[in-house]
């Protein structure tokens, strides 16, 4: 009797046996995987917009302030110029990101409808649309990130009256922020850390130097 009981499968072992015909269980598993992929896709969309927006806000605002600082030593002029660049840039980034992502959204919706028509399969449109990129979310993330990046040079220059020290502090603050953004971008994109930081850093320095130098040249000629 003991040997027979030993050979009989227990309730636990029966529960662990996967029934290949268990359609409901496989469907639930598939929905769980789709949900995880959806979450990652949505997260990647706004993270990309946020990183690009922060880097753009940092570099463009700092370059604008350096350009004005090349011909005007007044701290108020530099701050007002940077603040105007912050507002204009944030609006521009939001609108541009919204239009760009909405175009992508329309293309994917049209493709989804074509595939549905050709295959004749029953598709849950609400679920499929939820997987598509969100233009509003991307626009908001991009504008907010732009403002965060632009605040770095603004805060760095706000409390320093000496002209040369102010320019040096702005460059140092922007350099530190560029390294941080380069690290974040590398982690999100699974890219080499050093190369990513160098690309961002050299690009930011180049933009500030070119803006400062050309504005200084034009200002010295009285234009």
From TrEMBL:
GO terms for cellular component: vacuolar membrane. Keywords: Ion transport, Iron, Iron transport, Membrane, Transmembrane, Transmembrane helix, Transport, Vacuole. It catalyses: Fe(2+)(in) = Fe(2+)(out). GO terms for molecular function: iron ion sequestering activity; iron ion transmembrane transporter activity; manganese ion transmembrane transporter activity. It is a multi-pass membrane protein. It holds the Pfam family VIT1. Residues 8-22 have a biased composition (Polar residues). Residues 1-22 are annotated as: Disordered. It is found in: Vacuole membrane. The keyword Transmembrane helix applies. The chain crosses the membrane at residues 75-95, 138-160, 167-188, 200-219. InterPro entries: Ccc1_fam. Vacuolar Fe(2+) uptake transporter. Belongs to the CCC1 family. This is Vacuolar iron transporter. It comes from Kingdonia uniflora.
